[in-house]
């Protein structure tokens, strides 16, 4: 699995390098938003943990209706509340999504709108992690996730909505933490993201 994560990071870096070699097809800017998240496997339910989602993005247009988009984000994920006395988990990541973007024209009345369907992997590099018992010291990192969602145009800018889920367990070799030691299946980030993409440069 570690080799798979290394290959994923390598592919991400190579794709960004290829994008930068063709500046005439580039579009990029900053993204600001929030995550509403929970951690499957911690015995608490509900997307109650609200966290920051902020960073930058670069997109490369391959054809009229298809492009690739790479992102570098700071993200806060975790869980809060639920049925175990207000249990709180918060994790901070640098995240690297790589999304395939498909433009879907939608006709409403006599006007055509473009909605983008976005799907792809993301790799999260753990910065720190805590719960109300103290610090998680041995959570697995990187965290490999799957993402899918939509972007809705607001002029040159866009509103984005994504759903993300961990493909690998966060539970590593931490000892003495009841969340980790009592759950054989593991821990998985489960979250919905909302963001605003502000375009700073584009070929148009």
Topology:
Layout: H1 2-20, E1 26-40, E2 49-63, E3 66-80, E4 88-108, E5 111-131, E6 134-135, E7 143-154, E8 157-166, H2 178-181, E9 188-201
Antiparallel strand pairs: 1-2, 1-9, 2-3, 3-4, 4-5, 5-6, 5-7, 7-8, 8-9
Notes on the protein architecture:
The chain has 204 residues and is mainly β. It has helices at 2-20, 178-181; strands spanning 26-40, 49-63, 66-80, 88-108, 111-131, 134-135, 143-154, 157-166, 188-201. It has an 8-stranded antiparallel barrel. The mean pLDDT is 81.
User: With helices defined by DSSP (H or I, 4 residues minimum), what is the helix count?
Assistant: 2
N to C succession of SSEs: HEEEEEEEEHE
- Spatial order of strands in the largest sheet: 1-2-3-4-5-7-8-9
Oligomer: single chain
Query: What is the percent of helical residues?
Result: 10-25%
Name the shape in a single word: elongated
Query: CA-to-CA gap between the ends?
Result: 41 Å
Computed structural class: mainly beta
Approximately how much beta-strand content do the residues carry?
over 45%
Characterize the biggest β-sheet. 8 strands, antiparallel, barrel
Low-confidence stretches: none
Output the radius of gyration: 18 Å
Number-wise, the strands total: 9
Overall pLDDT, averaged? 81
């Amino acid at each position: 699995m570690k080799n798979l994560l290394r290959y994923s990071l390598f592919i991400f870096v190579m794709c960004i390098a290829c994008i930068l070699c063709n500046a005439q097809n580039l579009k990029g800017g900053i993204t600001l938003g929030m995550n509403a998240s929970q951690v499957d496997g911690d015995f608490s339910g509900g997307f109650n943990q609200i966290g920051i989602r902020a960073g930058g993005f670069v997109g490369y247009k391959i054809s009229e209706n298809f492009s690739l988009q790479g992102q570098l984000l700071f993200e806060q994920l975790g869980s809060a509340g639920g049925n175990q006395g207000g249990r709180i988990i918060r994790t901070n990541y640098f995240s690297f999504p790589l999304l395939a973007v498909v433009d879907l024209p939608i006709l409403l009345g006599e006007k055509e709108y473009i909605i983008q369907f976005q799907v792809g992997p993301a790799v999260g590099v753990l910065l720190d992690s805590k719960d109300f018992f103290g610090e998680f010291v041995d959570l697995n990192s990187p965290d490999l996730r799957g993402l899918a969602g939509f972007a809705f145009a607001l002029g040159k800018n866009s509103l984005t909505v994504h759903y993300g889920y961990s493909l690998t367990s966060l539970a590593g070799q931490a000892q003495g933490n009841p969340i980790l030691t009592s759950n054989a299946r593991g821990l998985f980030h489960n979250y919905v993201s909302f963001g605003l993409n502000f375009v700073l440069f584009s070929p148009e």
